[in-house]
Amino acid sequence: MRWIFIDKFVEIQKNSYAKAIKNVTLGEDHIHDQYPVYPIMPHSLIIEAMAQTGGILAGYSLDFKKNIFLAKIEQASFSDLARPGDQIILESWIEDLRDEGCKVTASASIGGVRIGEAVLMFVCMNTDKTPDSHGDDFIFSRELLSVLNVAV
C-alpha cells in the first residue's frame, strides 16, 4: 500500500519551490492512533508530507529521470498540532540540487501560521538501480504524480 499525504500541488517551480495541500480528515485511520480521544495528524506523518512535497519537487527538477529517496531528516521542529478539519499548506525550497542528492527546507502551516519546519536530505538514484515491483515507476508512480495535475 502506498501512503500519499498530499492532496494536490498548487504551485511548483523547477529547481526552486513547491506548494502543496494536505487536508486532515477524521476518515484517516492514523489520525486516531496516537490519542484515540484526541485525534491529531502525527508529526512524523507531517514530516512525510513535507518529504513527499520536497521529493516531488526534486524529481520534477530532474525531469523525473532519477528516483528520489529520503536519506536524512537533518532537523525538524513543531510548534503546534494538526487536527481533523485543518488544511496543511506544505512548502518546500531547494537549497542544493546535485546529480547525486538534494537538500530541501520545508514548512507546514495552518491558517497562515507555521506549525512545523524541517531540513531534509534526499539521495537521487538512476531509475535502473531501484526496485520496480509495482508495474510503473517505484517512486514516482502514476498515483503519486496525479497530485501534480493541478500545478503542471
Can you offer a commentary on this structure?
By secondary structure, the chain is an alpha+beta fold. It has a single domain (8-143), classed as Roll (Thiol Ester Dehydrase, Chain A), CATH 3.10.129. 15% of the residues lie in helices and 40% in strands. It contains 2 helices and 6 strands, in the order ββαββββα. It has helices at 43-61, 142-145, and strands at residues 8-13, 17-23, 66-78, 87-97, 101-110, 113-126. It has a 6-stranded antiparallel beta sheet, covered by helices on one side. Strand 4 and strand 5 form a beta hairpin.
Structural features:
152 residues; alpha+beta; Thiol Ester Dehydrase, Chain A; 6-stranded antiparallel sheet; 2 helices
CATH topology grouping:
Thiol Ester Dehydrase, Chain A
CATH class: Alpha Beta
Summing up helix and strand content along with how strands pair, one would put the structural category as alpha+beta
- What is the domain total for the residues? 1
By CATH, the architecture is named Roll
